[in-house]
Prior knowledge:
The protein contains two helices and six strands; from the N terminus they run ααββββββ. The protein is an alpha+beta fold.
Amino acid sequence: MNTHDGTQPDMDAGAEPADQVTEQAPGDTDQLMQAATARIAELEAELGEMRDRWMRSEAEIIGRLREGFEGVERSFVALLERNGIKRVDPTGAAFDPNLHQAMGEQESAEHPPGTVVQAWTQAWTLNGRLLRPAMVVVAKAPSSTLGNPQTLDTTA
């Protein structure tokens, strides 16, 4: 299209002809892809580094928190012991119904029958008197006649 003086009309400053927009050199596309791939790799490495630092700081905080709770527990138990309250671990001791509450029995050839095999909770005493019994699992003799039908009494 010609203007009245025979020249082409002025194009907008930002407008480019359609054939220039669609045509790019193949080298430009390869460079653009390589730059994008390098940037993605850089961001992934940075993400991995941040994740590692975050996990380490979480572990450090959880460790400090555990140490804090253990310190509070030690202080509390020491305070109780100063006032005559003691914690008694019954594991390995003979079952005593005055000190222990049997929560279950477990067959064991390693422990004599009536021995505390496992303590779920410990006993607490005040100047030798029971405050709270220990919840325990007690050993019993293994049953050797469990699968033998000849020893079952069916006359009852």
